[in-house]
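Re-run with default settings, no changes from the original entry. Doing this only to confirm the output is reproducible before filing.
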Amino acid sequence: MLWKPSPNFNDRALPISMIVLHYTGMKDAASAIERMTSAEGGVSAHYCITEEGEIVQMVREEDRAWHAGKSYWCDITDVNSASVGIELVNPGHEWGYRPFPKAQIDALVPLLSELVQLYHVDPCHVVGHSDIAPARKDDPGELFPWDRLAKLGLAAEKPVKAHVDPGWADANFLMALNRYGYDVTDAPAAIRAFERRFRPELITGVPDGQLRAMLFALLLERDTESSTG
């Protein structure tokens, strides 16, 4: 692991309860790391992982990095204070979005596992930038291998038994989506973020029976675990 300190941090106001995954959305790793470690850039993350699997730390975990911007998750509006931010080098949708290499995800898994265990982060609170800022962000995007993380218990798992459509009206679906964690102020954006996370093969921004069943299953599983845990 390399240490390349960034001046872009300040004190946390909240304990760590989340981990936010991003893509850099820049042409290459050097450009992204330079931006996150320069005062002029005004942004940072705790870690950046290159496509070759090299991990670069830029901000200490005890400090508040500036990676989330205006964001929201489960009533938390200062996501920067409550989270560890991990950037994955990828040109993103603007510069030629592509799959995340195996070496990069192989490096992410042990780092994420260590963070989840150290800070007792619930898998439901390992999220993407698009989950916490659906109206502004698309990353890490529909090609990110959430399934691999879920199988290791490091992220919420896509429901495999989501067969019960609760038949919610659209307004009730949005209420349930907000209960799960999303800011639903921009309803279509919030729905697309949920799809990007749990149904990346079909992104419409419109609730349907499959989405209702998936969200119902996710909430049921989370609430059951909370009551028994």
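The chain has two domains: 1-157, 159-229. The longest strand covers residues 18-23.
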